[in-house]
Amino acid sequence: MATWKTLLLQDSSSPLMEQLTFFHDHTLLILVIITILVSQMLISMLFNKFTHRFLLEGQLIEMIWTILPAIILIMIALPSLRLLYILDEIYNPMITVKAIGHQWYWSYEYSDYKKLEFDSYMIPSNELKPFNFRLLDVDNRMVIPFNSQIRIIVTSTDVIHSWTIPSLGVKIDGTPGRLNQSNFNINRTGLFYGQCSEICGANHSFMPIVIESISTNF
Length: 218
Known about the structure:
Layout: H1 15-47, H2 59-88, E1 95-102, E2 105-110, E3 117-120, E4 142-145, E5 149-156, E6 161-165, E7 170-174, E8 180-185, E9 190-196, E10 208-214
Parallel strand pairs: 1-5, 4-10
Antiparallel strand pairs: 1-2, 2-3, 5-8, 6-7, 6-9, 9-10
Domain Cytochrome oxidase subunit II copper A binding: 92-218
Main location: mitochondrion
Family: Belongs to the cytochrome c oxidase subunit 2 family.
């Protein structure tokens, strides 16, 4: 969960989030190198009054600054395409959960079990226990086993919502009349917090998401 002093991404709790973090670091490294090189060239041109005669009409330098950006884009595109393929792939899920967005709460249905559905509302500030988090805790958590492949199906009954858990690397839009799906695998037990990430009305910031990951060995 993010705190007031968090500067970077949240600690990953799923293999997908680990891959997203690696891709973020990979892309950021390329951007830092480009920024340093461009800054060095700008500073050099700013304080240097001389003109490099080979830069006035140089086919070699034109070839370099045409080919080099193409290579850099390929270095970014290939890991990105691989990651997109991994994110879209649905492996044999152990449990399928349907999340339905409402103004302004979530409903959950466990498709593998009969009559297992419930609503999840944010706990009001005047009902919080000492161990609850303000604006983040809910009365009914979504409970799933850890180390299991989970398929999440998201939709909405009114306006567009977005079911998001940052530490799992999952963000799915809930659109009325459509079913969007994704999968994830939580690799540790605990509580994982998220919020609706699509502005959906006056109480948009008051529809949190809480997943409780538990062990299957009772």
